[in-house]
Fold each of these.
Amino acid sequence: MIIKKGIRRQIVLHYFLVVFIALLLIEVIFLIALRSYYYDTVYNHMVNHIRTANDFYQPFRLTSSDNVNQLSEMVRHFELYNTELQILNPAGQVLSTSTGFEIEQTIKTSDVTQALAGNTSRWIGKQQGTGQIVMAVSQSVSNGFENTYILRYVTSLEYVNDKLMKMTLFAVSIGAAVLAIVLAFSIGLANSIVKPLNNITTVSAQMAKGKFNVRIKGDYKYELGELSSTLNYMAQEIVRSNQVKDDFISSISHELRTPLTSIKGWSETLDSGGYDPEETKIGMQIISKETDRLIGLVEELLDFSKLQQNEMKLVKGIVNLRELLQEIMLNLWTKAEKKGVQIKLESDEKPIIYGDVNRLKQVFLNIVDNAVKFSHENGVINLYFAMEEKFVIVTVQDHGIGISDEHLRRVKDRFFQVNPLNGGTGLGLAITQQLVELHGGTMEMESELGHGTAVIVKLPLPEGKIPMAGGLENGEEDAAGPMA
């Protein structure tokens, strides 16, 4: 089976290679130990026989000095079943064997050399003539006179080696079966990882081509599950952003078309002539009003673009928040009076902060203007100050229509409008929040549908002494002192 290049192949090869090396080491060690055990068993059996036979033979070794009788007696006492006994002289010449065959060559193997030195040792190799693998064990024996002989036992290892070969084949078979199981397991494991990845890759490729309606299906676990959830969430957000963008384009097109239509209509009317001065004045006022409206829309878009590109620069200075809010109340007084809405500043605090007065005016003008827009007829808007150790908190509370929980989570998103029919670009609160954050503050909103909305702006106070209108809290320095 050929596995194409990829993660599946790497996983299978890594698992297979690790298990293969581990099995190879185990089997090699096992077979070496098994071979040593069998060979040692044969060797120990012959050595024990030599010792036992030698102890039995010693009382009779002085009974005869005749060489022929001595050799026959030694063969009778020392022979071992299924093993050839050779009696050698110190020169390595074979004097007699238990098989009766004469061996003419001189034997100089390591076991014979060790036996002459008084040790018992073994030699494993091919026997001359037959070519069989044999083990030879030699030991020197004295006949009680002047002669010294070497008893050399030779046994075939063919049967032992045959047993070892069968056990080797059995071990290899078990190893092959284990490797086959590991291979199947590693392929299954690789598929459990690769198939989800292939699915995720396929869906991601479709998303890359703009098909954001597709989703990754499957209950994946751990990192793969997190990855699929993230990609699905990304596609969902892109779809939502595209929808918001489309809604914005539709809305801004309508917003731009309305004033342009008015300007064009009155321009053509005035250009035709024949109207009295009063109508001309009304037409010019409408043109001026709609032009200001267009300028406001364009400036809002430019502000948002600057904020997105981090190009908005603040011109900071001392700002009296109480005076700033009072100025905003005057600016919106006419609009509020038309709905019978009262705007009340409830606090006596006079906080002074360090910021851009024009941008802060833009922030609170947008917040209070929204409060007026969404208040009920004859409603009340309350403005509060609250002082903390390092912050001043400004709260704008209306008792109007409120915002649902679903819309409250998105109301500060760019281009989002709770009711597109109310007009606007949907950028006002998004710009407001970013301007507050540029001042190092935060903006939060709390609302209950049908009961009103509270916008809470938290702005940092200057470091050190808190400046107040008319001087510091302890009156030691001028209000502008810390800023100098």
Note: The chain is about 50% helix and 15% strand.
Amino acid sequence: MRWRGARRDLLVDLTCLSLAFFTAFVLGADAVDAGRQGPDGYVLACALLTLAGCVALWQRRARPMAVALFEVALAGFTEYVAGAMLIAAFGVAVHRPWRQVALVMGVGCVAAVPYALVRPDPDLAEAGFGPLGQAVAGVALSFLLMTPPVAWGMVVRARRELIDSLRERAERAEAEALLRAEQIRGREREDIAREMHDVLAHRITLMSLHAGALELRRDMGAEEVAKVAGTIRTSAHQALEDLREILGVLRAGPGGEGREGGRAGAGPRPQPGVADIAELVSESRAAGLPVLLEDRLPAGEGVPPSVGRTAYRVVQEGLTNARKHAPGREVLVGLARAGKDELHIRVRNALGARAGESRLPGSRSGLLGLTERVSLAGGRIDYGPRRAEDGGVDFCLEAWLPWPKT
């Protein structure tokens, strides 16, 4: 690309130099035909000045202002540099602001005065123009000659600035689009990470509790062992299905269908809601966690799917933490309408594990992710140790989600 640009610049420079020499040749031939070429010394000086003016055009890109002022200064002594002067004026109009363009035109008009006085036009003299008239005519002619290339150059400059502005705007829009896409991908990753934590932590803690029962209850019969082993296998299968579905969404991206996300032709499984909390409690009871569910929601009033999904995740996280940090302790799950426009979820359990129960390690990130999830849903959350009625200390997780009356 750079080589192509250099070749194009060389071709343009050669074209400008050829036009400047051709203009000088035409003007010189016209002066010879009219018999006003002047003495030989003057002709030689004009030839040398014209050669210098044409060669100076090679520097018009690097020093457009200096070259233009040099050309208009030479125009005060010889008319043969007119072509080079117009090309230099065009270069200034392309590369410099209008104030410098006006300066070049002004100097060019002023330079026409001494030339008109030293080399008066015979036709104007025959028409009765004196020195002042010759000077005015020279200024007018110089202004008329310089106006077209200067105007053309300013149009070219405005077009280039417009193209550069459009290109910069397009690049900025592309960069902003990439940034927005990256932010969307980041939010998608965070959503998937929270989903994986909520789902897998629940399944794995269930498997851990059942496996712990097999380890501690050595007096279990073969039928009971088989039942517990079947529960572990079912939980592991469900965990793998959940993981496969989430990874399928991750591979497909937003709006796509994962390559491994379920059976071919099958859509994603329905998202859990408030109606699925009872099944979630039953799973925890089957794992040996005593859970009491108090459902005080008004009959016949459906919870919006987004609110129900968040409520399900709140209860799931509460039960998961209870199994991890207080296994064997009774857990109270409460659902109720708070006021007129909120769904109140409460998960409360006594702190500490019973004798013989082992505590599972936690990542300490579930409640943080849950807080963000509830906040994005427009609700609020509160959790921490609370004084129990029997004088002990309970851990209480509460959330209030928006649930406007319909």
Note: The first strand starts at residue 291 and ends at 296.
Amino acid sequence: MIQEKFTYNFSNIVILGGGISGMGAALLAADRGYKVFLSNRDELSDAFAKALQTHNIPYETGAHTLEKILAASLIVKSPGIPDTAEIIQKATKAGIPVISEIEFAAEHSNETIVAVTGSNGKTTVTSLLGHLFTQAGMDHTMGGNIGKSFAQQVTESPAEVRLLEVSSFQLDGINNFKPKVAVLLNVTPDHLDRYDYKFENYLASKMRIAMNQDQDDYLVYNADDEAIGQALKTTPIRSTLVPFSMTKELEYGASLINNTIKIAIDQTPFTMPLEQLSLKGQHNTANAMAAATTAKLLKIRKETIRQSMQSFQGVEHRLEQVLKINKVQYINDSKATNVNATFYALDSMEQPTVWIVGGVDKGNDYSQLYHLVNKHVKAIVCLGVDNSKIVEAFGSCVEQMVETNSMEDAVRVAYKLANAGDTVLLSPACASFDLFDNYEDRGRQFKKAVRGL
């Protein structure tokens, strides 16, 4: 059954949250001539406050004025505000539609949307696709959950293709959002604190990326991911399914055969030996397969795909080699905000590792890391306000474990624990908000502390 398109009343828009997505939505609403008001619980950054003043957009900080918010015809909320927040509950009860910024932006865009989601790898795949599109001379913008918000992109300039990284929080607030190509990389437990600690709720959120697609659209998905496989059996999908697999040869889709990627989706199969990929590691092979398959669907030349895969330099804060000091390699994997991402990082370690871990626990199950910690980790440096769960999980796995609550201390302790030939790995497996603004701030503080040794 085809879902009817949701129609919105844009006469009086309230934006909840004054971060990157909220600012983008406010600027787009003002650009379209709508009445708009932004409400932010905390203080706004100076740059954002100035932007609102420049565009004559009224706003408030420090609190949410209920009367103004409940007078809205439509509320666009920040992904960071949960549906359980009192203000959202009251708005919903009052019958006011509450949507995410990507939904609002999509209502004002007729361009082709390529949307990438997954628990891990989505920034790498989005960035790799951005590199591919640039090399192919494709008129595109890139952003969403990284970089510029979708709404800001729509405000600034037209483009043939909108390449977006999208999170589950953003997908929770869509009704009509419809990508031409949706990419679903993997679904492993993450953000369970936002989903009643139920993995099936989080999985359902990720599957929403394809809910409005039709037979002219594509869902590129990981056929090796059991959770996605189960969800596809029970979720009605109308788009063309395009699988990729590292474990089985597929007649249609992307496969890994004899250390060579093979993509068979049309009359001209694409092949590329793994040794030619600039990105190394098993997880990056899957990322490359997803990106190359998407590029092939968009009719990008095979030679362009091949050259792009060879020249892509990777993403900041994702297994980023920082410095080698006294024959110790320091690696910044601050973007590993969940257990599965840290699993990939630890699995790729080849030397004895001093592991810096910790932050805001999101309902993590650390048991899947035990064998990797036993195999690769010689010492653990905890970095967080509350390290009790990590101490409890790994206390018996290593001989040395030290608790710290600042990046400088963590790096200094790691420096003392590491010997020549070792690796110091920041791969927190947790969110950053206890001690840092975000994972980027955490990664940059790590690099600064390392350079200060």
Note: The domain at 104-311 is CATH 3.40.1190.10 (UDP-N-acetylmuramoyl-L-alanine:D-glutamate ligase).
Amino acid sequence: MTVWGALGERGYLRSAWPWRAAAYLLSGALFGALVLVAVLGGLVVGGALAVLVIGLPLLGLTALAGIPVAAVERHRLRLAGLGPVPARHRTPGAPGLPAWLATRLREPATWRELAYAVLLGTLLWPLDALAVACAAGGPLALLAVPALFAADGEAKAVKLWTVHSWPAACAVAALGVVLLAAGAYALGGYAGARAELARVLLGAGDDGDRVTELVRSRVRLVDAFEAERRRIERDLHDGAQQRLVALSMTLGLARLDAPPGPLADQLARAHDEAGRALAELRELIHGIHPQVLTDYGLRAAVADAADRSPVPVDLALDLPGRLPRPVESAAYFVVCEALANIAKHSGARRARVRGGHTDGRLVLEIGDDGHGGADPAGGSGLTGLADRVSVLDGRLSLSSPPGGPTLLRVEIPCRPTDPCG
């Protein structure tokens, strides 16, 4: 539970949370003052020695002052119930102090922590001290009025008025109790906000790093998936397909040698079934990962898909050469899925595929003259293709008003890997 969460619980005043909030803010005020002295001392000494060679490294090392400050702040956050907040520092690429220093001075986390140290030493610690003084100092002074009245016969209540009787002293003490209770809640609220600010500043980049790593992991999964597809395609092409070809040839020879009769009829049917199984296997291999895409690239593979389409396709694809394999694979399967949808659902008489490589992006447009009304959420398979394109930082958009025409546009950032083709 955090101090903010404890504010809404019954028994907050009887719990340790008001004391923890006060300890968090009071320690922050003291630590911030020390940070201010240390940072100013480093800057003064480094500036004074800047005329010497040793002054420049000292000024550079001052940038690292935020690292220990951030480490202490992460531990102090536990007083407010927050934590742990991990440090977002990178692992040096090589052992040794020079590599460590180079990594720390180049990464954003170091400068973010230095900025927090400067903020703590200049602005936050006076606010922490002021919050503790207002929330606790005034009410405690009111609570001390009866003791002062008993010692001197009169007492001043926080320099506002003078108390000359016991009823007045007790009333001032009761007011102090009320203000102290209210101050405990105010102190808890401020401590929670202050701790949340520190957590956000010291943990900034956590979500960004997580998203970056997620994108990288998705790209690695796509690459692994493509490699597995190519392996399956090779195994089927070089293994099962060759065995079916040999079986078909054997059945064909046996059919020629068999005398007319029931045996010849059975061999003929077996030979036909083997031929159909071989054709289906070739279609399966082509759907997994066509060899023409591996050998000759995207334009040849798209031209082959256009030739096999039941709907006539006008092709106008201008590419400077080979593109990265993930881009070629994603673009090819988008074209194949789009042509399959055109043949199944559009009622089109003609389709077109056009595009090229401009401004560092592969742009493809697949359209038809059908009746339109295509819906990616209707099970057309385009949603999965959009996810696949998004992994490559690309975009897939569809325009298909009722009555047509339908236009599918794909944009994928990439650079040619073989400009000469």
Note: The first helix runs from residue 3 to 7.
